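Pipeline run #58 for the internal structure catalog. This entry was flagged by the ingest filter as a single-chain record with no existing model, so it goes straight to prediction. Upstream metadata was stripped on purpose; only the residue string is passed forward. Reviewer on rotation: M.T. Logging verbosity set to normal.
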Amino acid sequence: MTLNIRTDSARTNSDALSEEIAFATGTSALGTVLVAGSAHGVCAILIGSEAGELVADFAVRFPDNTLVQHDRKLDGELTNVLRFIEKPARGLHLQLNIIGTPF
């Protein structure tokens, strides 16, 4: 399997071929957290033991997209998710991009 993942500093001419989805990882009391978002909002929140495993799972879930590790772009969303894990009573308010499957 080929993973289409790059960092935010490596842009290519083929970027227009698929929608770009940025992601960032952080550490919480539950383990490593990956938050991903497109231009339309957060489309994935994954929790696991290692960042590498989460990125691989993320790539399988979004095979037709360009995945970009972009910590600065998702800093606010990641911070909100990590805060929610620590204090769920405060709630979690995120702009979501819910991507479904065709029937």
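catalog note: The chain has a mean pLDDT of 85.
catalog note: The radius of gyration is 14 Å.
status: ready for reviewer M.T.
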